[in-house]
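> forwarded from #structure-qc
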């Protein structure tokens, strides 16, 4: 899973986001470790960046056989890992600088065990930074609250987080692109399976919501 966001607005930001999306797609087709993938992405984007733009990115992979989650957060908002059995919420926090800031950057891989019903919530800062008429940001705490209350069903998390943000900003609308990606893992004996609307089997259940404001904002990408 990949969620990314580019700093800034305008043509240069859009071009850098397009380059990041294309490079990420290419890297996903290669057999590499997460650190190698991030290193390749960083080097490529640093080469084409104008020095004032950068890309935040969170790259995560699920090992179905060993039931583990591995991830690298490059300056992106901390994703949330919700352990269904205990109700614990773990931050998947940043472990290295955003991409394109430096020619080289050391990254640490985060890892966690997965259990039946565990859910991951990825998002962009357009969600947490949206403001109400009083100028208050939606913030991380409200996001945690909705995730905790609806941690059983992935669609409920996605829809209720998004709609609570819409209610929060009232008539102001979002001033930045908003992406929410919810991933739920289910286990049946030794196998990892998914409950999809079409009834097909897969490794994880994915629910996404991507919205853009009418005015120009940051370009976001989720995969």
């Amino acid at each position: 899973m990949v969620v990314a966001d580019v700093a800034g607005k305008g043509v240069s930001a859009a071009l850098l986001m397009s380059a990041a999306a294309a490079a990420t797609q290419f890297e996903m087709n290669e057999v590499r470790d997460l650190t190698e993938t991030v290193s390749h992405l960083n080097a490529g984007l640093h080469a084409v960046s104008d020095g004032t733009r950068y890309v935040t990115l969170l790259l995560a992979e699920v090992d179905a056989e060993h039931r583990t989650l591995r991830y690298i957060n490059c300056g992106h908002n901390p994703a949330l890992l919700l352990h269904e059995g205990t109700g614990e919420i773990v931050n998947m926090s940043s472990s290295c600088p955003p991409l394109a800031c430096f020619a080289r950057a050391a990254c640490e891989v985060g890892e966690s065990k997965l259990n039946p019903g565990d859910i991951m919530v990825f998002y962009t800062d357009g969600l947490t930074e949206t403001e109400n008429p009083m100028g208050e940001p939606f913030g991380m705490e409200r996001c945690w609250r909705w995730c905790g209350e609806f941690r059983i069903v992935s669609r409920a998390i996605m829809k209720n987080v998004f709609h609570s943000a819409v209610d929060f900003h009232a008539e102001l609308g979002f001033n930045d692109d908003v992406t929410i990606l919810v991933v739920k893992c289910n286990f049946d004996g030794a196998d990892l399976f998914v409950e999809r609307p079409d009834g097909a089997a897969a490794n994880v259940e994915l629910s996404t919501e991507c919205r853009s404001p009418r005015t120009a904002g940051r370009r976001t990408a989720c995969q």
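QC bot note: The chain is about 30% helix and 25% strand. The domain at 2-217 is CATH 3.60.40.10 (Phosphatase 2c; domain 1).
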